[in-house]
């Protein structure tokens, strides 16, 4: 058997007096993929940052252990200085981070960022680095790579930005690639393409991959072996096939049970056929875009003639790839952006056309929960003020009444009322998302729009949050528009599903009809791309390449199963 290219021995990592990783050991060989899985706070990212020796920049330290890189003339990275690490970091060992937009320099062109790596580690001239950068983008199948070199990160989609990050990480053909949640924020088709790309590049370069994720579906698609972590401890080490077939630790079994799997969620009973609380009729929104300085602007449609409705106590799941118009639609519904055409009728009152004062009054009936709870909460405000702020603005409550409301809201979302005096940074990601839900509930809305509200959470935390949403819905009769790229989660929580493609609804109907008997070719492709948490159940060759579908003509969304003509 070949010697490991990366060998971690008895690694412990501490932040002050807190031990984040405790006595962790694993080996990875060339061409092998090892997955680190576990909930938030399990020590996965701390392990990755320690291997790259970036942990010190985050306030942590390696308290014990060894990190050997290389199968021949191996070097212990744990003993190197930061200056010595510069020879290895980005050259022999590289990393892809979860959010490419925060990892890429927003004021540097893509070509400059790729070229910087090549010039620093391979000593290439500026011209040679540019040629190599274009080849690197072509290798990760970025279309029109020459033009992309001149673009800035904000001009690329999420999937393309992630491909650029992969190109940068692999520019020097490293021995080890660390991929830290590289597909978590991506839609299912882009996720499938990125996983396929990593696997193919691994075969080409022969590198080892340390794949960090909480997505067991992705683990089943790409990993050879798995290390299950919890609170910094190693719970289980097994081959992927053995883990999925018969997990030995109770924690691994809990993790598997919490993983949403398409076709394994009980269907929710349909709500009574009553008057919809939210009706959208022919909603459209476009944006002006220019391809260059002094060139005329053109209108690009983001939402085109969308119609849908949601009844009280019902959840409508909205799915589609990145850039299909889901978030634009949600913001247009609340008039956070002004629609170009169409009507939005909330609780019998038309929102489109209302003056600002009347609109603010009407917004008490529709609230939004965003993807990133930390960015949604003011870090300088205490929880009691944060979660009751909408009620203060809409209803003018203050003093003792506000304090009592904060305690009641915290109980509603299963948090300790004594936490009202704490700040957002003192809560976990799942707890912060519950604070956002409590904040939305403070004005007793009739509709809550959840825009990717659980996509950044680990599977068990996401399961708890979605279960809480269902309990609140059943108790208070709130309607949810649940926007997500995770179709298995959509199946778990939705009564009906609407599929969006290029700004239009192409298929809608009851959850079982749409997800298990899809009629539209785009829905079929979307479902074919869903990762199955069973190792090698679908080969990478079976995942279809991106195809272009004809632009559909929209039809109104009703209770039956409809597809675009």
From TrEMBL:
Presence of the UniProt keyword ATP-binding in the record: yes
Identification of the protein by name:
Glutathione import ATP-binding protein GsiA
Pfam families linked to this entry: ABC_tran, oligo_HPY
Q: How does it assemble?
A: The complex is composed of two ATP-binding proteins (GsiA), two transmembrane proteins (GsiC and GsiD) and a solute-binding protein (GsiB).
Q: What is its main location?
A: membrane
PROSITE patterns (alphabetical): ABC_TRANSPORTER_1, ABC_TRANSPORTER_2
Q: What is its EC number?
A: 7.4.2.10
How does the UniProt record describe the way this protein sits in the membrane? Peripheral membrane protein
Q: Does the record's keyword annotation contain Metal-binding? A: no
Q: Which reaction(s) does the protein catalyse, per the Swiss-Prot or TrEMBL entry?
A: glutathione(out) + ATP + H2O = glutathione(in) + ADP + phosphate + H(+)
> One GO MF term, please?
ATP binding
Q: Which InterPro entries match?
A: AAA+_ATPase (IPR003593), ABC_transp_ATP-bind (IPR050319), ABC_transporter-like_ATP-bd (IPR003439), ABC_transporter-like_CS (IPR017871), Oligopep_ABC_C (IPR013563)
Superkingdom as given in the UniProt entry: Bacteria
Q: What does this protein do?
A: Part of the ABC transporter complex GsiABCD involved in glutathione import. Responsible for energy coupling to the transport system.
Start and end of every ABC transporter domain?
Answer: 6-256, 278-527
Its subcellular locations are: Cell inner membrane; Cell membrane
| Similarity annotation | Belongs to the ABC transporter superfamily. Glutathione importer (TC 3.A.1.5.11) family.
Species, as recorded? Pseudohoeflea coraliihabitans
Keywords of the record, alphabetical order, are: ATP-binding, Cell inner membrane, Cell membrane, Hydrolase, Membrane, Nucleotide-binding, Repeat, Translocase, Transport
């Amino acid at each position: 058997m070949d010697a490991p290219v990366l060998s971690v021995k008895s690694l412990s990592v501490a932040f002050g007096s807190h031990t984040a990783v405790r006595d962790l050991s694993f080996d990875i060989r060339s061409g092998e993929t090892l997955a680190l899985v576990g909930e938030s706070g399990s020590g996965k990212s701390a392990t990755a940052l320690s291997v790259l020796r970036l942990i010190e920049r985050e306030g942590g330290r390696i308290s014990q252990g060894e990190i050997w890189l290389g199968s021949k003339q191996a070097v212990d990275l744990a003993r190197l200085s930061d200056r010595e690490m510069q020879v290895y970091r980005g050259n022999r060992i590289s990393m892809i981070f979860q959010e490419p937009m925060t990892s890429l320099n927003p004021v540097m062109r893509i070509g400059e960022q790729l070229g910087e790596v090549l010039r620093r580690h391979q000593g290439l001239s500026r011209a040679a680095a540019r040629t190599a950068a274009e080849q690197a983008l072509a290798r990760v199948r970025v279309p029109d790579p020459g033009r992309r070199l001149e673009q800035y990160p904000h001009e690329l989609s999420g999937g393309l930005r992630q491909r650029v990050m992969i190109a940068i990480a692999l520019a020097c053909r490293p021995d080890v690639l660390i991929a830290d949640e590289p597909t978590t924020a991506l839609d299912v088709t882009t996720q499938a393409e990125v996983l396929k790309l990593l696997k193919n590049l691994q075969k080409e370069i022969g590198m080892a991959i340390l794949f960090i994720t909480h997505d067991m579906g992705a683990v089943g698609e790409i990993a050879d072996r798995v290390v299950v972590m919890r609170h910094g401890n190693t719970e289980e080490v097994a081959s992927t096939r053995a883990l999925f077939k018969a997990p030995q630790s109770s924690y691994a079994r809990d993790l598997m049970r919490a993983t949403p799997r398409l076709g394994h969620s009980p269907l929710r009973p349909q709500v009574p056929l009553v008057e919809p609380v939210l009706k959208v009729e022919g909603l459209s929104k476009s944006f002006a875009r220019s391809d260059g300085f002094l060139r005329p602007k053109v209108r690009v449609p983001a939402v085109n003639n969308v119609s849908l409705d949601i009844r009280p106590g019902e959840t409508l799941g909205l799915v589609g790839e990145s850039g299909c118009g889901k978030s634009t639609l949600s913001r247009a519904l609340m008039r956070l952006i002004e629609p170009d055409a169409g009507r939005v009728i909330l609780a019998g009152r038309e929102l489109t056309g209302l003056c600002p004062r009347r609109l603010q009054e009407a917004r008490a009936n529709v609230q939004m929960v965003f993807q990133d709870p930390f960015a949604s909460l003011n870090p300088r405000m205490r929880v009691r003020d944060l979660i009751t702020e909408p009620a203060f603005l809409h209803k003018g409550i203050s003093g003792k009444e506000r304090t009592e409301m904060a305690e009641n809201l915290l109980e509603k979302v299963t948090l300790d009322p004594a936490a009202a005096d704490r700040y957002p940074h003192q809560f976990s990601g799942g707890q912060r998302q519950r604070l956002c839900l409590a904040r939305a509930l403070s004005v007793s809305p009739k509709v809550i729009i959840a825009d990717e509200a659980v996509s950044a959470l680990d599977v068990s935390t996401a399961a708890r949050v979605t279960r809480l949403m269902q309990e609140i819905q059943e108790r208070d009769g709130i309607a949810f528009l649940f926007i997500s790229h995770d179709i298995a989660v959509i199946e778990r929580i939705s009564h009906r599903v609407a599929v969006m493609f290029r700004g239009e609804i192409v298929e809608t109907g009851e959850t079982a009809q749409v997800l298990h008997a899809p009629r539209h070719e785009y829905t079929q492709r979307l479902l074919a791309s869903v990762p199955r948490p069973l190792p090698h159940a679908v080969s990478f060759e079976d995942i279809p390449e991106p195809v272009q579908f004809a632009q559909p003509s929209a039809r109104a969304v009703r209770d039956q199963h409809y597809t675009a003509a």
